[in-house]
Amino acid sequence: MREQTQKTSETETQAGTASQIGEIVIRAKEGDRAAFGYLVSLFHEDIFRMVYFRVRSEVDAEDLTQDIFIQALKGVARLKEVDRFRPWLFSIAINRVRDFYRKRRFLFFMGTPGEAEVVKMEQQEEKTDAEPLINVERKDFWNQIGGFLKKLSRLEKEVFIMRFLDQLTLKEIAETLGKGESTVKTHLYRALKKFKKEPGIQALAGEIQ
Predict the structure, then answer these.
(1) Helices 154-164 and 181-195: crossing angle, nearest 10°?
(2) Residue 106: per-residue pLDDT
(3) Which residues of the chain have pLDDT under 70?
(4) In the chain, what are the domain boundaries?
(5) pLDDT score recorded for residue 203
(6) I need a surface site. Which of 20, 47, 57, 207 has the fewest CB within 10 A?
(7) What is the reported pLDDT for 1?
(8) What per-residue confidence (pLDDT) applies to 166?
(9) Which fold has domain 128-209?
């Protein structure tokens, strides 16, 4: 009974927070820059972490994060469902990261000096000796998880990362990727099934589940 009361309290708190964010988004849609600034402060860390994990460069992650919020500022007035702000923001981030890599590949094929190093980095993007950021403090996390992610399909990998590293809900992942929740659940199940077969990273299960 106590656990049920606690869960109910947590649910009410989350609902209240979502309602408050919705009100702030409405103000941002109406051109309130202070309201949008507050949204930036709320989601900046989430977006930066998401981008950094994909580009492996703190400088690039900072630049891309700034670009993402600039795009969000320009487009927030057209957002129809205010309760979808977070997945909408993540969809902008996903597309911006894809554009980042497309541009770099294009510059390489055009013969831009120095881009060979970029392609080399992309080919080894699952391996890094960079210092972990935010709440992840173990270098072996990146090494072991990176090796595991190589074994997943593209969609399994994206869903797994969004669920356990970006910490999106299944509904938010579906909205971000433009997929049905059943599709997201299927690919997450497949990814978790493969994860459980990896004895070398079982010790990390408690950190990401």
Answers:
(1) 90
(2) 52
(3) 1-16, 104-142, 199-209
(4) 1-125, 128-209
(5) 58
(6) 20
(7) 44
(8) 84
(9) Arc Repressor Mutant, subunit A (1.10.10)
Three-state SS across the chain? Answer: CHHHHHHHHHHHHHHHHHHHHHHHHHHHHCCCHHHHHHHHHHHHHHHHHHHHHHHCCHHHHHHHHHHHHHHHHHHHHHCCCHHHHHHHHHHHHHHHHHHHHHHHHHHHHCCCCCHHHHHHHHHCCCCCCCCCCCCCCCHHHHHHHHHHHCCCCHHHHHHHHHHHCCCCCHHHHHHHHCCCHHHHHHHHHHHHHHHCCCHHHHHHHHHHC
* Buried/exposed code over 29-50 (b: 16+ C-beta within 10 A; e: otherwise): beeeeebbeebbeebeebbbbb
Would you state the CATH architecture of domain 1-125? Answer: Orthogonal Bundle (1.10)
What pLDDT is stored for residue 47 in this prediction?
95
Taking the whole predicted model, whether its pTM rises above 0.70 is answered as no
Number of Cβ within a 10 Å radius of residue 175: 20
Identity of residue 173: I
